[in-house]
């Protein structure tokens, strides 16, 4: 059945196809002399591609859904605001299809009518900002690097550093690196926000009545504020989700890492799986929590105070503190909890112990084996991949149970179990355990489920041999008994106890001795039994398995007269007796003696001799 389309639907389809058909790449300076000229010439869906160079401009996207990209990256493509205003402005309702990617934005200044956003100013817009270096910009009121007011931009993978307030100015909403003001859903993901400053509050980031922003996987380091919130300052209605951020080395008189003041009736921030360490403040090295924040939650965080300072301080604005669950809060020479917060250690999975960072002095906050933060968190609201992208949870303490770690990093699965190697000899030996050809020992190693994986196999044939990976083939071609010793090691350094397999090879046929000598003759033929042979067999390696001696004659056992006696061939073991008689009318009798020997490996040998009774 066909359904008629409304005129509005037809027009929408035609609009989409028109835009797709008209989309083009505008190159700067090849097609347009400046980036702003290219933006002015572009239509929705176009791409402005900028060649390397320094462009002294102050850009405005003019509400267009276009991409502005650098050809060769931010290291060689610079937009210099020349202190004439914000370097880039989005203030015409731009959405996610308005993209700025891959530039260095510097020397912007937000003053006068544009008090916020020295590097990037976003007003009532929601663009996508990716892969830029935003540095050495200033603003009067807030957002030295980036300011977003009543918009929901996606700000991903940028480095926002060394931005701040205009010299001589003070106060304002703050946010030396980033300010987010007004109800919004800003996504601040995977950025490095470092070395920014503000005279008042919010050295790194300000969340001022910011709605429900999300801060995920950012490094917020070495920012400073003159009043509150060296790393992050959160005030008014800002129900932020602050998940898996590395917040280190920031400083402020109150709240070195984070500060919040939650208004009555609001939820407040959720802090989940953050590492907050080495921040500097006499009132809350890691966190200063205040306001009506009983609904705020801290889950799976590591909060490590600087020497001589308290880790978490709760203000006195309200008697009900935030909810703490599965955190490691520790102050080496101070108090883990101070102010109106009583100690939470020992309750709801909270601990107080040195988290054992790999190398805090070098900025490495991965957890060492044995850290108390390993497998000590909860799955409740935890991120499913850590700061490095490693899937959570892992079994970091080798108790066979994978559990979430506290902090931004998930420790590797701890593997205390060595691999197991099996040996198979091909071709298989015979039932007696011998080969009569060369053989190959196939070694295959497997590690335990969830282990670190097999690193190598080692085997010994006199000298040691190491083969990378989980399989090795060992060819044995020499005769004799050869013992192959072997073991495997995994990537965690576990090595299995040495095992061995024995290979026995005998390629040589047995030897037969004691057969009748050449020219053996039974004469005169007087019907007597004559011993002509005492046959034996020998094998130097596997040994004799069997010896068969037979004899036949070209004449029947009992002749046709002349005194023939029966029983012309008598064999006892290897002793052979033949009767010296023949048929009177024959041409001469010939006995044929055959000996066949088989060794244990399956090699055989045959010897044949004759004895005659002449006419």
Structure, explained:
- The protein is mostly beta strands and 615 residues long.
- It has 3 domains: 74-359; 420-505, Immunoglobulin-like; 511-613, Immunoglobulin-like (Sandwich), CATH 2.60.40.
- Helix content is 4%, strand content 39%.
- It has 2 helices and 57 strands.
- It has a 12-stranded parallel beta sheet, covered by helices on one side. An 11-stranded parallel beta sheet has the order 3-6-9-13-17-21-25-29-32-35-38, with no helix packed on it. Strands 4-7-11-15-19-23-27-30-33-36-39 form an 11-stranded parallel beta sheet.
- The model is unreliable at 1-21 (pLDDT under 50).
> How many domains comprise the coordinates?
3
Please bin the fraction of helical residues.
Answer: under 10%
The strands making up the biggest β-sheet line up spatially as 1-2-5-8-12-16-20-24-28-31-34-37
Q: Given the structure, what is the number of helices?
A: 2
In this structure, how is the largest beta sheet organized? 12 strands, parallel
Uncertain residue segments: 1-21
The portion of residues forming beta strands comes to 35-45%
Mean pLDDT: 94
Label the structural class. Answer: mainly beta
Q: Cα-atom Rg, whole angstroms? A: 45 Å
Identify the overall geometry: elongated
Number of strands: 57
Distance between the termini: 115 Å
SSE order and pairing:
Layout: H1 7-22, E1 25-28, H2 35-41, E2 47-50, E3 53-56, E4 59-60, E5 67-70, E6 77-80, E7 88-90, E8 99-101, E9 104-106, E10 109-110, E11 120-123, E12 128-130, E13 133-135, E14 138-139, E15 146-149, E16 154-156, E17 159-161, E18 164-165, E19 178-181, E20 187-189, E21 192-194, E22 197-198, E23 205-208, E24 214-216, E25 219-221, E26 224-225, E27 232-235, E28 241-243, E29 246-248, E30 258-262, E31 270-272, E32 275-277, E33 287-291, E34 297-299, E35 302-304, E36 312-314, E37 323-325, E38 328-330, E39 337-339, E40 357-359, E41 364-367, E42 420-426, E43 439-446, E44 454-461, E45 463-468, E46 471-476, E47 480-490, E48 499-505, E49 511-513, E50 520-521, E51 529-534, E52 536-538, E53 544-553, E54 569-572, E55 575-579, E56 589-599, E57 604-613
């Amino acid at each position: 059945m066909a359904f008629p389309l409304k005129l509005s639907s037809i027009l929408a389809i035609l609009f989409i196809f028109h835009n797709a058909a008209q989309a083009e790449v505008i190159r700067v300076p090849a097609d347009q002399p400046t980036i702003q000229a290219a933006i002015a010439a572009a239509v929705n869906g176009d791409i402005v591609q900028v060649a390397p160079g320094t462009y002294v401009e102050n850009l405005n996207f003019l509400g267009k859904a276009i991409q502005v990209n650098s050809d060769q990256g931010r290291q060689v493509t610079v937009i210099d605001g020349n202190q004439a205003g914000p370097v880039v402005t989005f203030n015409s309702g731009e959405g996610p299809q308005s993209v700025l990617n891959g530039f260095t934005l510097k020397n912007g200044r937000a003053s006068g009518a544009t008090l916020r956003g020295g590097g990037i100013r976003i007003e009532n817009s929601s663009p996508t900002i990716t892969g830029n270096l935003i540095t050495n910009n200033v603003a009067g009121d807030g957002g030295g690097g980036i300011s977003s007011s009543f918009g929901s931009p996606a700000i991903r993978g940028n480095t926002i550093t060394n931005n701040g307030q205009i010299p001589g100015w003070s106060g304002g909403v703050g946010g030396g690196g980033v300010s987010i003001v007004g109800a919004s859903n800003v996504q601040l993901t995977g950025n490095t926000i470092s070395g920014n400053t503000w005279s008042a509050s919010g050295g790194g980031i300000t969340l001022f009545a910011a709605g429900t922003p999300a801060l995920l996987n950012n490094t917020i380091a070495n920012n400073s504020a003159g009043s509150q919130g060296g790393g992050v300052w959160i005030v008014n209605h800002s129900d932020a989700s602050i998940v898996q951020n590395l917040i280190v080395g920031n400083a402020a008189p109150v709240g070195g890492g984070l500060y919040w003041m939650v208004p009555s009736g609001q939820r407040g921030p959720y802090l989940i799986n953050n590492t907050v360490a080495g921040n500097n403040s006499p009132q809350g090295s890691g966190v200063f929590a205040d306001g009506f924040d009983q609904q705020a939650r801290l889950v799976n965080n590591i909060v490590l105070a600087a020497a001589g300072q308290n880790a978490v301080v709760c203000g006195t604005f309200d008697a009900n503190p935030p909810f703490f669950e599965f955190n490691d809060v520790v102050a080496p020479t101070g108090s883990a909890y101070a102010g109106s917060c009583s100690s939470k250690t020992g309750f709801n999975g909270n601990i107080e112990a040195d988290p054992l960072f790999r190398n805090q002095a070098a900025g490495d906050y991965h957890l060492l084996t044995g850290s108390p933060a390993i497998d000590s968190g909860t799955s409740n609201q935890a991120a499913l991949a850590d700061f490095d992208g490693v899937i959570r949870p892992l079994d970091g303490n080798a108790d066979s149970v994978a559990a979430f770690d506290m902090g931004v990093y998930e420790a590797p699965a701890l593997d205390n179990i060595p691999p197991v190697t099996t040996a198979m000899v091909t071709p298989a030996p015979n039932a007696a355990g011998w080969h009569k050809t060369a053989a190959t020992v196939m070694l295959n190693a497997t590690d335990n489920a969830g282990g670190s994986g097999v690193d190598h196999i080692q085997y010994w044939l006199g000298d040691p041999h190491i083969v990378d990976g989980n399989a090795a083939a060992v060819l044995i071609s020499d005769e004799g008994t050869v013992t192959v010793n072997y073991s495997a090691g995994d990537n965690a350094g576990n090595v299995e106890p040495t095992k061995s397999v024995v290979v026995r090879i005998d390629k040589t046929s047995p030897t037969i001795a004691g057969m009748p000598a050449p020219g053996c003759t039974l004469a005169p033929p007087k019907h007597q039994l004559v011993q002509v042979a005492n046959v034996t067999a020998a094998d130097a390696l596997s040994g004799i398995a069997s010896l068969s001696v037979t004899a036949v004659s070209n004449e029947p056992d009992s002749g046709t007269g002349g005194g023939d006696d029966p029983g012309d061939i008598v064999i006892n073991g290897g002793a052979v007796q033949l009767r010296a008689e023949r048929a009177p009318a024959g041409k001469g009798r010939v006995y044929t003696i055959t000996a066949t020997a088989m060794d244990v490996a399956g090699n055989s040998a045959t010897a044949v001799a004759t004895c005659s009774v002449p006419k």
